[in-house]
Amino acid sequence: MNWGSIATLMLPENLLLAGIVLLIGIEIVMRAPRGELALALLAVTAAAAAAFWLYTTGAGAAPFPGHFSVTPATLLGKAVVLALAIPVLLISRDDFAAGPFHILLLSSLYGACLLLSSDSFLTLFLGLEIMSTPVYVLVLLAYRRPESAEAALKYLVLGGAASAALLMGVSLLYGGSGTLAISAFTQALVSTDTMARAGIVLVIVAFFVKAAVVPFHTWAPDAYEGASIPVTAYMATIIKAAVLLAAARLFAEGPMRGSIADLLALLPLVSIVWGNLAAMRQKSFRRLIAYSSIAHAGYLFYAFLGAGPTRFEAVLFYVLAYGVMNLLAFAALPPHADDAARDRLDSFRGLFHRAPFAAVLIAMAMLSLAGIPPFPGFVAKFLIFKNVIAAGYTLYAVLGLVGSYLGIYFYLRVIQLMFMSEEQAKVTHGKPGALTLGAALACLAAAIVLGVYPASMLGRF
Amino acid sequence: MFDAALLNIVVYLPLGGIALLLAAPAGQDAFVRRLTLGLMTLQLALVAWLYLRFDPTVAGLQFETRLPWIASWGVHYQIGLDGYNVLLVLMTAFLGPLVVAGAFTAIRKDVKLFYSMVLLIQFAMLGTFVAQDLFLFYVFWETMLIPMFLMIGIWGGERRIYATIKFFLYTAFGSILMLAAVIYLVLSLQSTTGITSFAFADLYRSQLPLDVQCILLAAFGLSFAIKVPMVPLHTWLPDAHVEAPTAGSVILAGVLLKMGTYGFMKLGFPLFPDATLAFTPAIMFLAVVSIVYGACVALVQTDIKKIIAYSSISHLGYVMLGLVSLNLYGIQGAVIQMVSHGLTAAGLFLMVGMIYERCHTRELADYGGLAKLLPVYSVFFAILTLASIGLPTTSGFTGEFLVLLGAFGAAWQQYELGSTLPLALASVAVSGVVLGALYMLWFAQRFLFGAAKAPHQPFGDLDLRERAILGIIVAAVFVLGLFPDEPMRKTELAAKQFQQLVGTSRTGVRAAGEPGRGPAASENGAPRFARAGTGSAP
């Protein structure tokens, strides 16, 4: 394979890399750097477009055989992850004017792209670390409250533990199979060898930590609350999407049976129930979203109970629908001088009368996250539970659905506060910037398309 | 073709209306009201046209639209009118302008949002009735909850938030289990026949063993029974009704409750005929309990809205009784009773709203002798009361009489086969008629007659707008009571189809040796996913 085609197949990554290099150059050369946001936006948009273009051409090859390969599915996954990053950048202007934010974000996205294309555990690990490390810094970057430092540290330690678990699992798998190819994972799924099974469990646990599945979720509420809004949005949507898509690549069409299936059903089930129950008691919007994301991690891992060929599509549609609706809520959140006040659920009281448009958008996002039609969250949930029932896990599906029912209450409470409660104290919001408004409208448009015509994203593979 | 497009326009007209309302400048409340009223009237005119064009001699769908929606799942956008829904669609469109006009003076807060919600719920209700694809049906079914949730929660009374969250959580619980059943049903159709479809017509051909049918009917039935509501799943209804604004109560009683009985008629019973037969005594028992319990509780209420709320439980018990009788009288009576209750309950709730606007209390004890104070109001109230208890010449009589005729017909057959229970239940149901007369007449007596008293005197009698609203409802009540023939002709074929669907066993016992027909059927012939389990099976 010549360098030209390698460069083309890695076009999304290369565009991101070019963006990173240019941003660093600007930072070094210019005394008062300007236009970083525009450059970052351009790089991410171009990368997303490139991924989608490559997907439409049906590109499929391995630029680095055994380590890095692209298929239409991974390209569509990259396009989704990168496209979700665009609203994050758009809403970041109020919080991050300086350059490091954009460099870190693009580096993290680069890691996500690598992760989605990895064929060996080596690239998988690299991708995961390149994706996560900048986020530890991002949590700290908008240092507004002492809690940020604590949150970042917690995230760093638990993220490190996850990496350690992953490495340990991979070494066990390597010891058993003698190969670093991720196909060793699917082969080990059917193995009865204790070492292979231990390896699988450790790898799954690492993914559970990264995706915040109970009981490995404790970092999420603190990290989400400590970070500033764009970073919270980034963690809740893109990191989660990339981790789950990587898991879908790892599990591929591997058989799911016995105790591994139970592990992949029970902990996510607990996650759904616990996330939804704990969210009821939250007073901070970001903590609420954190617990909601813990529950959603549960639904997402349910997708792996479905038959092999259905998994990637279910995960992809879910992370897209979930990401769009989360970003819609964050983009619609009215700005406020005091970050803590902006976040308090009490400040949502009577929001409809102060900012009707924002209130309606947040309400739509909440209903979609609750899985109420006609919003895309419903179609996403329907797809996952359809696959789970089709694979024969009817009992788990019913329990999961009942668990999802528990979540309706706290999403409704947000709507109740915005529409049905009187303001307690006068809250003064700032006006949302044009870019934030643009992000909200883009998310709204995507939500409408996904809700009214979900077939646009289904049946593509 | 033209009429099919017209049906789509009818359904989406309210959505267009919402867009118009959003574009309207702020502060133009009078314009918003008139615009909504105009749209609703236009919708009614279009529905009336479709109703007249509806051919009663054609079995099956008319004005059908069928387009692929989510092709890879076999989901279609399929809507159409048939004998099941044509009367209910007409009733929904009929109540639309009345609801809007009834709220003209009552709603002063967030007017634009309010009428948007009225239009949204109208859209969702019509969509639920005309949907002929289970996925589409479910989407509309759930969409209904959102505007109702907001309507009770924003414009409701004192305990509105408690009431509206209770309403949402109650109904959503039924829906969640129904969702699991929907998925299971569609997958079983796929594995036994190889057809991947959510269309009702295809699902009517599914073959399921009796135990599976029972579980699925329980899941569907729970969702529908909560909506009806059948005792003991009714406790959300009084709260929702009491706290809801008048328009919310009217929509709730007029249309939303019929979603439950319509669901049983269109989906629950015909999809699972064998389970229906197995459950018939239980459903009949619950229906009779609803009739008698609703009536008894209505008797002792002191809040006038609660009296009518509990009377709804009682009246919808008749609908269920008629449906499970499975004979033509009972089924057609049930449909007529649905429409009749839609008219009388809507009228009575509107009247409660009118008196509440004047006196700001719903305590029955605060009122008395309104016949002297508000003569016109009292005449309308008396007529609607009599219609509600089923006086001949009113719509209530036609419905209740046919239902009881059907129930006794079915019970007598059972009696001849040696089972006395249905006959006993049917006899108890008759006592509901007496109880109904008792509580409504006692209510009217305390309300309208005796020493004249009412808080906040003096107040004017009904104005022209209110007289027009009630006059239209009363006229419809008499038309349906005196000429039930025409609407019954429109529903007759559907009633026969219902009878035939429920009467045909579909347990799908295959002859031994016949291989599984579906691609996903495993070696023992059972659907692959039918393995209940935890996944640890080998």
Radius of gyration of chain B: 23 Å
- Give a quick account of the main beta sheet of chain A: strands, pairing sense, barrel closure: 2 strands, antiparallel
Name the structural class of chain A.
Answer: mainly alpha
Count of helical regions of chain B: 20
Description:
The complex is a heterodimer of chains A (461) and B (538). Chain A has 20 helices and two strands. Chain A has one domain (3-457). The longest helix of chain A is centred in the middle third of the chain and has 32 residues, at 146-177. With 461 residues, chain A is mostly helical. Chain A has a two-stranded antiparallel ribbon with strand order 1-2. By secondary structure, chain B is an all-alpha fold. Chain B has a domain at 279-505. Chain B contains 20 helices and two strands. In chain B, strands 1-2 form a two-stranded antiparallel sheet. In chain B, strand 1 and strand 2 form a beta hairpin. Chains A and B meet through helix 12, helix 18 and helix 19 of A and strand 1, helix 5, helix 6 and helix 7 of B.
Short characterization:
By secondary structure, chain A is an all-alpha fold.
List the helices and strands and how they pair.
The complex is a heterodimer of chains A (461) and B (538).
Chain A (H helix, E strand, L loop, with lengths): L2 H7 L1 H19 L6 H21 L4 E4 L3 E3 L1 H19 L8 H19 L3 H21 L4 H32 L5 H7 L4 H18 L7 H8 L2 H23 L6 H22 L5 H18 L5 H25 L6 H5 L7 H4 L1 H14 L6 H15 L3 H27 L13 H19 L9
Antiparallel strand pairs in A: 1-2
Helix pairs in contact in A: 2-3, 2-5, 3-4, 3-5, 4-5, 4-11, 4-14, 4-20, 5-6, 5-11, 6-7, 6-11, 7-9, 7-10, 9-11, 10-11, 10-13, 11-13, 11-14, 12-13, 12-19, 13-14, 13-19, 14-17, 14-18, 14-20, 17-19, 18-19, 18-20
Chain B lengths: L1 H22 L5 H25 L8 E9 L4 E7 L4 H17 L8 H20 L3 H10 L1 H11 L4 H34 L6 H4 L6 H18 L8 H8 L2 H26 L1 H27 L4 H22 L2 H32 L10 H4 L1 H14 L6 H22 L4 H28 L15 H19 L2 H19 L35
Antiparallel strand pairs in B: 1-2
